[in-house]
Write a structure and sequence with these properties.
Helix content: over 70%
CATH architecture: Orthogonal Bundle
Number of helices: 4
Distance between the termini: 33 Å
CATH topology: Helix Hairpins
Length: about 120
Amino acid sequence: MQLTDLIDSQINADERRGFPVKFGTDAERLDQLLRDLVGLTSEVGEFADSLKKVGLAISNPGYNGVSLSEATPQLRSELADISIYVFRLISILDGNLESEILRKMAINQERYKHLER
């Protein structure tokens, strides 16, 4: 499945569940952007918290925590949640994530080409 198709599938599911991405006014759109930003930030926090616990387990042998390999499924799940919020944010902004990523990759290629080996 292409990225655009994946995003469309998620957005269609969101809309069927009552989580729209189209709004009549900028105020409504801004309100939803802020709500989804809070959701995105929460998911990033959950990812960070899991990594923190892995780090504690690695750096403190007495700490009863999980290894990175044990935490990996949860970390992947959090990244999926993060992606879904990014899908929503780009959709609310009437953007195309695939195009934006390609545009940014071209900018970064020029910006960081001196670092290539």
